[in-house]
Hints:
Radius of gyration: 25 Å
Oligomer: single chain
Strand content: 15-25%
Amino acid sequence: MGDGDAPASRAPPSIDSEEAANAFFASAPPAPRLHETRGETSAFCVHHGYRAGGDGVGDRPIVLVTSGGTTAPLERSAVRFIDNFSSGSRGAASAEYFLERGYAVVFLHREGSLRPFERRLPSVAAECLENVRSVGASSILGVMRVVDESRGDAADDGPSNGGRVEAIPTAAQTLAPAVLSHLDAARRGALLCVSYTSVFEYLQYLREICVVLGAECGENAMVYLAAAVSDFYAPWATLPEHKMQSRDGKDKDGGNGSGLVIRLEQTPKMLGHVRFRWCPRAFVVAFKLETDPEILHRKASASLRTYGAHVVVANEMAKRRDAVWMCSLERVFADGSRAPGTVRELTRPPNERDIERLIVDDLAERHRAYAAWERTKKTRGGKEGEEGR
């Protein structure tokens, strides 16, 4: 090619390539607490018996649960952004059941979304008959009362000589298990919460936490990717610094514009990087959500084959609270034996409040067997190496 020739055009990198991931991270604004989060995650692992470069055997398994949606900002000031409907209920419930199963939990969640144990608060007022309603909506404050310490009864107009706040009896019965579970997790140091807002922050935190878990916990770590990640985003370099003005748009003829055109790019797929680069020994669980069951199962199968997840939890939108499909290419047992890939349906029974309990029970058993076999392989490999010397 001569000096005056135009450069040959390059095909854009595959959205699941290392090049696409590196380009995304290089162009993203740095997450506000990235360094602190890495240190907190490492300290969390040490608290549970792990160490950097260790053998992956600690006091209990550790799971990273991602939860809630991500925003795709349309301005650097983030006045406007693209969002999704995720409230974080699946991630919050799953974190609770992982704690029940003896896991330590790193909870990477959208700021303002539901959190473990706190997720029950919005429904408590609606479940209690004595609650006070304001403007047609129930409030958690409506199931609380102030008790006048001097009189020993409720003081609707405020206590005359100090007082305490307590829940009404029916609310107290509902709240007690959540409060006790929260206090127990706090006492054991078993829950580390990290919040994010944008897709830029989420993916940076995800990478940092996975790298720490991969280095310190090995096969004793599980990555449970329940967050609803934005499929599209506007590159940071293309975003205006300040709030876009609604009347500043001009069309090509110089007249007043009648709309706004925004070019979005596809968010790079990071599942393969989680599985093979950031924490390659961890047990990785991905989620798929679709409205069409045929598309759902096809995409779940493709995700297993393309990105190597150990399990894909497939959800059909209309049934996601009552049924899921646990998809895997193979299942590893503690003795190293394997069963061919299956699609196992889990259905919530009428007496079970959350299907997440069934999901976590299934995954905890799979992870236990996987980790046991991986440790056995390392032990056998070490012995064989010593015998060969």
